[in-house]
């Protein structure tokens, strides 16, 4: 888009005509990740001061959707997939396959740009971690998390998510 703007300018700061022009001039790619995996990652990176995963989840639930950190805020409230027509949606866990396709579509030499991903190993690790962390939560916390992320679970195919049940 030809208009000059600072890197931190929010899309909402433009009028509707400018937004349509900008969105029409870009290839829009959305990277999505299972919301439960995002919580695990945030906890493991020390994003909260909670001593246990269960208390971290309770802090997230207590903060609510509107006060949530972007690290664990529901994706639909961050990227507006119902309003923005994304050209590609890339699922975490299929990065190598999907990024290879995107780079090829952009006319770039895939092998020289794409780092080695071990999607299978990452998937197995998160599957094991999810099982361990999910078992720490109370039934009420599990239900509240499913409700907290209900729109993400409806918008994206996280069929293997522990929160989908």
From TrEMBL:
It is an enzyme of class 2 (transferase). InterPro entries: Carb_sulfotrans_8-10, Sulfotransferase. Its EC number is 2.8.2.-. Pfam families: Sulfotransfer_2. GO terms for molecular function: sulfotransferase activity. The keyword Cell membrane does not apply. One of its GO terms (cellular component) is Golgi membrane. Keywords: Carbohydrate metabolism, Glycoprotein, Golgi apparatus, Membrane, Signal-anchor, Transferase, Transmembrane, Transmembrane helix. GO terms for biological process: carbohydrate biosynthetic process; dermatan sulfate proteoglycan metabolic process. It is a single-pass type II membrane protein. The keyword Transferase applies. Coiled coil: none annotated. It is found in: Golgi apparatus membrane. Belongs to the sulfotransferase 2 family. This is Carbohydrate sulfotransferase.
